[in-house]
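hiii so um. not sure if this is the right channel but i have a protein structure encoded as tokens and i wanna go backwards to a sequence. like what aa goes where. can anyone help
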């Protein structure tokens, strides 16, 4: 008999997830799942029971990715109910996101190479009809591979995939379908509500054997059959050849600049999808509030409805809460960031602009592109980094194990132990 039954003590009961893009919904989900973050999560987390049976995993990632709720809040809630050893697996999963972000911040050329790689693959697909057809079939879920096709359709329809399914999907994309990893990563980034430049890019590179050199992740039919509770079994459909991809480019580590302090002057607050709870990072209220959308910059291709909707909803919620918290009406703008920021600063009569720190990705690219114009207009830009990032990122220099050893000290630094 195949080992596909749920583990004892906790079954895959239906739990239809509603990913409402506001802080209240994220906090509500955190409250519901916190009791399950110890033994239940440890024993059940690798099972993908399907999109209507998500009680065994947190599904918090869309809210955390946009920082509608923060990693620190999640850790605080978990540690208020469980001791660190019993909730160790869940705590480590929270820190994986910080690890990926910190690692990418110190190697920005990885993101730049990925961006360039997407452009190259799209150009190749324009010229190569067979490649174009294979890519389209994979993204439409029309390969005939059991499980893979269902996950492709689930991703586009819902904007979410179980983490184990993401690993299987990436492995099949790279090693069975032999498709360029960059466009697989782009497919995820365009559709995932929790699409994060660092976690997504480095996750795909890890599967491919580029992040941890020579070490790949191989999707196996038996593993898929077991951890989908028998829903899928791509027996004899997957390649056994999973040789690591190689790259010629070296990605040197660049030291972090951890300086972060508020200006002693009135300022314009800029909100992006990277951090939508500014009340947690600002020590003084702003003179004006402007939210800017960078979601369309995730890819040269069309962004999925779920991903766009969640990001815009998160920004709208941030504007509404900031208006209520600071007593200042905020606005959500589209288009050129330099023009929008300059105009808003002039209207507010300020020369300082503050934003919660924007890690590598489309928002950071938009700010970087706008910066020369802001400086020309006499505006000073300050980015405020969270304590969690300041304490976590410096330890993301090599593999996750190096950061893992530092988790107790980070928790102490955050006042959580």
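sure thing!! here u go:
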């Amino acid at each position: 008999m195949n080992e596909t039954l749920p583990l004892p003590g906790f079954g895959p009961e239906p739990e239809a997830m509603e990913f409402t893009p506001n802080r209240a919904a994220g906090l509500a989900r955190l409250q519901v799942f916190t009791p399950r973050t110890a033994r239940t999560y440890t024993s059940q987390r690798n099972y993908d029971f399907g999109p209507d049976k998500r009680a065994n995993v947190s599904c918090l990632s869309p809210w955390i990715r946009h920082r509608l709720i923060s990693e620190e809040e999640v850790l605080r809630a978990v540690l208020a109910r469980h001791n660190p050893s019993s909730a160790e697996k869940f705590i480590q999963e929270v820190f994986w996101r910080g690890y990926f972000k910190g690692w990418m911040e110190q190697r920005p050329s990885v993101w730049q190479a990925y961006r360039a790689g997407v452009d190259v693959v799209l150009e190749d697909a324009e010229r190569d009809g067979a490649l174009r057809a294979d890519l389209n079939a994979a993204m439409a879920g029309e390969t005939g591979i059991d499980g893979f096709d269902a996950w492709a359709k689930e991703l586009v329809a819902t904007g979410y995939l179980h983490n184990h399914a993401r690993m299987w999907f990436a492995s099949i994309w790279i090693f069975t379908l032999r498709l360029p990893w960059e466009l697989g990563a782009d497919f995820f980034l365009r559709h995932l509500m929790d699409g994060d430049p660092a976690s997504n890019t480095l996750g795909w590179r890890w599967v491919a054997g580029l992040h941890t050199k020579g070490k790949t992740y191989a999707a196996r039919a038996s593993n898929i059959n077991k951890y989908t509770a028998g829903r899928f079994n791509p027996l004899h459909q997957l390649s056994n050849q999973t040789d690591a991809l190689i790259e010629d480019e070296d990605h040197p580590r660049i030291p972090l600049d951890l300086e972060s302090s508020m200006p002693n002057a009135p300022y314009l607050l800029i909100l992006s999808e990277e951090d939508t709870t500014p009340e947690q990072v600002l020590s003084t209220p702003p003179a004006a509030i402007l939210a800017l959308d960078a979601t369309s910059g995730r890819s040269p291709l069309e962004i999925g409805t779920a991903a766009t909707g969640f990001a815009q909803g998160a920004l709208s919620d941030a504007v509404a809460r900031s208006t209520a918290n600071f007593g200042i009406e905020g606005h959500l703008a589209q288009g050129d960031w330099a023009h929008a920021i300059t105009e808003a600063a002039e209207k507010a009569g300020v020369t300082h602009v503050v934003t919660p720190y924007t890690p590598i990705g489309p928002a950071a690219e938009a700010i970087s592109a706008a910066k020369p114009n802001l400086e020309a207009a006499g505006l000073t830009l300050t980015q405020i980094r969270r304590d969690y990032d300041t304490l976590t990122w410096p330890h993301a220099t090599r593999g996750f194990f190096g950061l893992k050893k530092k988790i107790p000290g980070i928790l102490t630094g955050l006042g959580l132990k």
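oh and Residues 1-14 have pLDDT under 50 and may be disordered.
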